[in-house]
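Per your request, structure below.
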């Protein structure tokens, strides 16, 4: 990927807002403050774009019930592009630093992305297989070939979402924190920040699901930190994240972080009798099987990473 797509950044509508605010100072507060600035500005821009698109499609957002269509499901995912643009704009135009420093490497991106996509899908399928074997799922059939176009549209959407979230949480935030404090503290702070947007869904799930889901989300975030610091590539962690969500929500039709299921290929029905396995309403990400799979993945990743390789190429 070109190191500084300045033609994209210059036209980024977020720049007017971002440029009007002084970048926070260094240290942990500065890193987190910058993250919040990017997050809030990008969220406003994304919301405006999504509303405009849905309005142009004739969807009345004031209605009591917004129709469940492919557009209303895909638009929020595509809206995450504003978060990626915001992070790149802030890094290049406000901080004056090259994009290679946040993992947008020139070489090896395709291989890292392919490996990450395979790893993310394998982790989810392993988790779902274990839950099925333990009696937590029943197979409810397939959606049919007519669901494939929707699956492809959502595939692109989840690729954008995963890339944007990793660029913010690992590319921007973790990179700045590592420069300001110890690696352990940087990983813990960035992981806690990553967990924060998931808290409403976790609290709504309540009980054991909330606690297990919090632990699992932290484990996932730490795993992404380890992989990012090892490879120095945003493509690897973006692919793991996107593939994880897509396989869970679209391939298997299960809830992603407490959200509504969007099954397009297979339909798997959780059995409420075993919430410790299925995670209840939050989904298997709040189940103990995912805890085991994430801990095993983290152990494997840590063992495979002989030394950090944080490249700025």
């Amino acid at each position: 990927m070109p190191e500084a797509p300045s033609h994209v950044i210059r036209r980024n509508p977020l720049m007017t807002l971002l440029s009007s605010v002084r970048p926070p100072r260094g240290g942990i507060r500065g890193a987190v403050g910058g993250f919040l600035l990017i997050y809030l500005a990008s969220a406003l821009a994304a919301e405006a774009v999504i509303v405009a698109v849905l309005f142009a499609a004739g969807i009345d957002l004031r209605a009591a019930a917004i129709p469940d269509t492919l557009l209303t499901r895909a638009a929020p995912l595509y809206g995450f592009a504003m978060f990626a643009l915001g992070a790149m704009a802030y890094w290049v135009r406000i901080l004056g630093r090259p994009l290679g420093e946040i993992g947008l490497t020139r070489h090896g991106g395709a291989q890292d992305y392919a490996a990450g996509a395979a790893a993310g899908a394998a982790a989810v399928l392993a988790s779902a297989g274990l839950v099925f074997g333990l009696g937590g799922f029943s197979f409810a059939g397939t959606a049919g070939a007519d669901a494939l176009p929707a699956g492809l549209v959502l595939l692109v959407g989840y690729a954008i979402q995963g890339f944007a979230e990793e660029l913010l949480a690992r590319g921007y935030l973790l990179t700045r924190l590592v420069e300001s404090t110890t690696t352990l503290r940087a990983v813990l702070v960035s992981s806690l920040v990553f967990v924060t947007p998931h808290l409403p869904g976790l609290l709504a799930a309540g009980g054991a699901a909330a606690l297990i889901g919090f632990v699992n989300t932290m484990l996932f975030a730490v795993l992404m930190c380890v992989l990012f610091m090892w490879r120095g590539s945003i493509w690897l962690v973006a692919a793991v994240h996107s593939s994880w969500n897509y396989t869970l929500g679209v391939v298997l039709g299960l809830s992603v972080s407490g959200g509504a299921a969007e099954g397009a290929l297979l339909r798997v029905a959780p059995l409420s009798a075993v919430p410790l396995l299925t995670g209840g309403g939050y989904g298997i990400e709040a189940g103990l099987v995912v805890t085991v799979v994430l801990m095993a993945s983290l152990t494997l990743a840590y063992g495979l990473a002989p030394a950090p390789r944080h490249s700025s190429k």
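The two ends are 10 Å apart (CA to CA).

Regards,
D.
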